[in-house]
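Quick one, probably user error.
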């Protein structure tokens, strides 16, 4: 197995541990992967989510991934467990803050997280796009965009959460090429976040190809990945629905790894796992309660692509 580092795989992450987790009613209308908690004991749900984040953070630390764990003790931010939507970090010391579609998600932005980044990492500037919310323009971070840090391409599904204007502005500031496309699930519903459909690692890509609406765009995307030397692992709609693409490559103590949920791990086929494990081990994390909210491991981990102080 290759143990080289890669700019695609951050060695540190921010994780938010919620004390009052529940699926967010404000995001249910356009997130087909979300499950209702009606009839559930919300105290039990919240405790289970708290325990899942605790265990996930411990597992990542055991693998040598630096994990900055923050607490969310408020009751106003049910989706706070998904910090990758409100900020991202970039080589050269750049941080971006994003405009959020759901009003109650806008409260997730936290100054203490940004201050921690400035304390432990080299931060040159913070570019704040959140003011675009006033104009109903949204771009939900590395949920809306899946970034190829090697080839400098920002892949983005057109949706309520991804405005082409904001995408263009981000790409201009951060030196990415925008690659926008349409994607729908088996019921014809637009996929709400790109990171549910696609995971870009250093040597491979997990992607729900059949869900990309335009055949020409689909071929173009595959061609781009193959030209970059990556193996394209096509996922079925059913695998995507079980969060098989909502994974993230990280840098651990002994090399790179792929963090994904136990549910995602269980729906990957043996041949698919074999391709992945040629270059990285799979690290499944048990997060079934959090997945009720329509996101999984990738959404839970905000990667830090900054140089340590």
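Nope, works fine. Designed sequence:
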């Amino acid at each position: 197995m290759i143990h080289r580092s890669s700019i695609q795989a951050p060695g540190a992450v921010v994780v938010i541990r919620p004390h009052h987790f529940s699926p967010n009613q404000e995001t249910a209308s356009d997130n087909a992967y979300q499950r209702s908690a009606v009839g559930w004991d919300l105290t039990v749900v919240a405790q289970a989510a708290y325990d899942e984040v605790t265990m996930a953070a411990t597992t990542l630390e055991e693998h040598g991934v630096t994990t900055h764990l923050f607490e969310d003790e408020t009751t106003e931010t049910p989706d706070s467990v998904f910090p990758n939507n409100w900020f991202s970090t970039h080589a050269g010391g750049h941080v971006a803050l994003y405009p959020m579609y759901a009003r109650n998600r806008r409260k997730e932005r936290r100054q203490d997280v940004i201050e921690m980044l400035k304390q432990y990492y080299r931060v040159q500037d913070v570019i704040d796009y959140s003011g675009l919310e006033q104009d109903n323009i949204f771009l939900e971070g590395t949920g809306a965009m899946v970034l190829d840090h090697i080839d400098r391409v920002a892949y983005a599904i057109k949706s309520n959460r991804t405005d082409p204007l904001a995408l263009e502005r981000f790409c201009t500031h951060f030196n990415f090429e925008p690659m926008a496309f349409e994607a729908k699930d088996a019921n014809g519903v637009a996929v709400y976040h790109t990171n549910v459909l696609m995971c870009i690692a250093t040597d491979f890509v997990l992607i729900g190809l059949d869900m990309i609406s335009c055949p020409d765009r689909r071929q173009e995307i595959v061609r781009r990945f193959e030209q970059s030397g990556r193996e394209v692992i096509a996922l079925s709609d059913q695998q995507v629905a079980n969060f098989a693409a909502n994974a993230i490559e990280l840098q651990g103590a002994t090399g790179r790894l792929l963090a994904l949920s136990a549910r995602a791990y269980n729906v990957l086929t043996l041949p698919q796992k074999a391709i992945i494990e040629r270059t990285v081990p799979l690290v499944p994390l048990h997060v079934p309660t959090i997945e009720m909210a329509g996101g999984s491991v990738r959404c839970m981990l905000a990667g830090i692509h900054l140089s340590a102080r």
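The longest strand covers residues 12-18.
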